[in-house]
Amino acid sequence: MISFIVKRILQSLLVMLAVALIAFALFQFVGDPINNMVGQDTSLLDREKLRQDLGLNDPIFIQFFRFVGNALRGEFGFSYVHRLPVSQLIGERFSATIELSFVSAVIALVVGVPMGIYTAINRRGLLSRSFMTLSLIGVSLPTFLIGILLILVFGVSFRWLPAFGRGEVVNIGWWSTGFLTASGLKALILPSITLALFQMTLIMRLVRAEMLEVMRADFIKFGRARGLNNRSLYFRHALKNTLIPVITITGLQLGSIIAFAIITESVFQWPGMGLLFIQAIGDADIPIMAAYLVLIALIFVLINLIVDILYVRIDPRLRTSTSGSGGQ
Amino acid sequence: MSSVKLTRMQSLKRNLANIKNGDLWYSFWRSPSAIFAMVIALVSILSAVFAPIISPYNPFDLAQVDLMDASLPPSWMAEGSENYFLGTDDQGRDLFSTILHGARLSLLVGFASVIISLVLGVGLGLISGYVGGRTDVIIMRIADVQLSFPAILIALLVDGIFRVALPKDLHDLLALYVIIVAIAISGWVQYARTVRSSVMAEKVKEYVQAGQVIGLPSFIIILRHILPNVMGPVLVIGTIHLALAIIIEATLSFLGVGLPPTTPSLGTLIRIGNEYLFSGEWWISLFPGIALVVLALSVNLLGDWLRDALNPKLR
């Protein structure tokens, strides 16, 4: 168990180091950082002095270590476009993305799990079949199109809901929340549904598949033979055994939701990290790109690590046999 | 090398014969949704391939584009012009023609990236499964790590990095290749993992041992004997991946990091239309959107059917 955790942590560190290397390489090979910082009227001498002061003449691996050291403290320098510290820019937008992702995850779970249970229990029912067909359409419908359709219907035609921005926000310390104002909550509805739909279909299909699997198990047949009624069979026995993989996948999907938020944020002009990142690609704003790259990798690696460790803890079967090879 | 090619041709023909006489063909004609999806997919693919012949206008030819005709609604609406069936976009390009050409680009990117992904993934999977040992561990670790990120994020990151790394005047020119490579890199893992596990099951079978005993070189055993036996699942993944690749391409283009507006794919068209959504010009984004969904859905349906047909356990 301990050796498994240590191995997984080492592997995570390796991944982070690789990502840091890519982010660092971006700085190295794309343009001249001095040119990006100063105006055209700066003399060559001043440029050379700045280059020396910033340590850009040091050997490359020293620069890399400095980059990693700064990254660990959350510093990625100044944005080329906004002329503000990257940490500040990302910090301002962090809460917007997290709130959106959180609400979407809740919607996806609250709607997806019951739909999955229902379609598993009434396999041949008309409603189940239409759920399954809808979920296939959901998979083929790209997130941004769902967003555009929702905007078209609820934002443009009926004008019921705001179709862009975050509404009014309340600042609690450095965290800005849209939960406390009516316009903030209203602005949250369309983007969070857009972001939730794909995950919802995924969770529904997963719960259904797992539930069907468990229903075939011997202990369910035995329960039936014992004369248990359907309700306790489905919910006390089958569902309980279904939930472990469902929780795992849902945990893993949290990262995906944050990543997919890039698309939703672009559609709804939601002022989150994803929108910042997309704009940064357009502007070749490398400090922001590098910071986002490292941050999103960190989120994914952490989530994976936690889920892996939890999974081994929850499921005792995994503790003995595959303790050496994670990620199987 | 030519002998390898020749025998591959033969085995392909044999496979084709098996398909024709076998289960797959039978189950295809028994599944209405498969036939329906195939018809839709074929119609969209053919109309995309022959776009230059079918489409009434050439949207890339500036001489045929009249800015005075910009943003006209579809022909059945009051202000619509009968010259433009689905209306025009913001630059006065005929929307129907632009959609056909856009679908052509979307399919081109989709097919090209799936093929590259497939070759890369199957190749690595074969090596990983057959050679085993440290090679296997390294390849599979990379696969594990990549699999923990969504494909669309990987494609976006690769695309974004290429985009900033290339000089500005180059990236519009190379946008098509950049996006193909980005999507290809994001998709190889599925193939590699599937092929690897099939290879591990195959390589202990007698026919492989027989090949090893008579001294055939490894690559011949792998390519001629193992490969044909592991291609079934690859076909399924490839079909579903095509739908995904089309969607990823559309998404990247929609986000403005894909194909440029001068050679718009479906995603670029939707992006252009999105800017005019609030001024009431819904058709510029809606029609390309419908085209995209029809394309992706029909390919997905085909993939679904193929998966069920090739996997009797699921029936």
Verbal overview:
The complex is a heterodimer of chains A (328) and B (315). Chain A is mainly α. Chain A has 13 helices and two strands. Chain A has two domains: 71 residues, no CATH class; 198 residues, MetI-like fold (Orthogonal Bundle), CATH 1.10.3720.10. In chain A, α11 crosses α12. Chain B is mainly alpha-helical and 315 residues long. In chain B, α5 runs antiparallel to α10, α6 crosses α8 and α9 packs across α10. Chains A and B meet through α1, α6, α7, α10 and α11 of A and α6, α7, α10 and α12 of B.
Outline the secondary-structure elements.
The complex is a heterodimer of chains A (328) and B (315).
Chain A: H1 2-29, H2 33-37, H3 44-53, H4 60-72, H5 86-121, H6 126-140, H7 143-157, E1 170-172, E2 175-177, H8 182-215, H9 218-225, H10 230-268, H11 273-283, H12 286-314, H13 317-321
Antiparallel strand pairs in A: 1-2
Chain B: H1 2-21, H2 23-30, H3 32-49, H4 51-54, H5 95-131, H6 133-147, H7 151-165, H8 168-202, H9 206-213, H10 218-255, H11 266-274, H12 283-310
Helix pairs in contact in B: 1-2, 1-10, 2-12, 3-5, 3-12, 5-6, 5-8, 5-10, 5-11, 5-12, 6-8, 7-8, 8-10, 9-10, 10-11, 10-12, 11-12
Give me the CATH fold name of chain B: MetI-like fold
- What would you call the structural class of chain B? mainly alpha
Our estimate of the beta-strand percent of chain B is under 5%
Q: What global shape of chain B is seen? A: elongated
Termini distance of chain A? Answer: 15 Å
Summarize the entry for a quick read.
Chain A has 328 residues and is mainly alpha-helical. Chain A is 76% helix and 2% strand.
Please tag this protein with its features.
heterodimer, A: 328 residues, mainly alpha, MetI-like fold, 2 domains, 13 helices, 2 strands, 2% strand, B: 315 residues, 12 helices, 75% helix, elongated
